[in-house]
Design goal:
mainly alpha, de novo design (two linked rop proteins), 68% helix, 23S_rRNA-intervening_sequence, 23S_rRNA_IVS_sf
Length: 125
């Protein structure tokens, strides 16, 4: 299939995307206002946003399909938490309107039913 993406290619692409997302979250956390609410939200988004990448990498190293699914589910939970904290920052009025739109889109991507869940990293022999 000319348009299909191999599991290995998908895993590598998604691995890079989650790492880039984590770096963008780190940059955002460093740029947040100093109000207590922003500090708390910043720490939470930092934890959740960087955990997506860490847990996806852990899923890629899974020793079984069951372990892969469990670890991938953790990554998806962290992505959902990241969406919540981004929405709170966005709707809380602490940042210019639209500043977080790209991050929100990227955070929601793995939560879509048709995204990466079907693609499994290649097995190691």
């Amino acid at each position: 299939m000319p348009n299909s993406v191999s599991n290995f290619d998908f895993a590598e692409e998604f691995r890079q995307r989650t790492k880039t997302f984590a770096l963008r979250i780190m940059k955002l956390a460093d740029q947040l206002p100093t109000e207590p609410s922003c500090h708390v939200a910043g720490m939470q988004i930092l934890r959740a946003g960087t955990s997506v990448a860490a847990n996806y990498r852990a899923a890629c190293r899974a020793r079984s399909e069951r372990e892969f699914n469990a670890k991938l589910h953790i990554a998806l939970e962290e992505a959902d938490k990241a969406v919540l904290w981004l929405e709170l920052l966005n709707e809380g009025g602490h940042l210019p309107f639209g500043k977080l739109d790209d991050l929100l889109t990227e955070a929601r991507e793995p939560l879509r039913p048709s995204s990466g869940k079907q693609k499994r990293p290649p097995r190691r022999n």
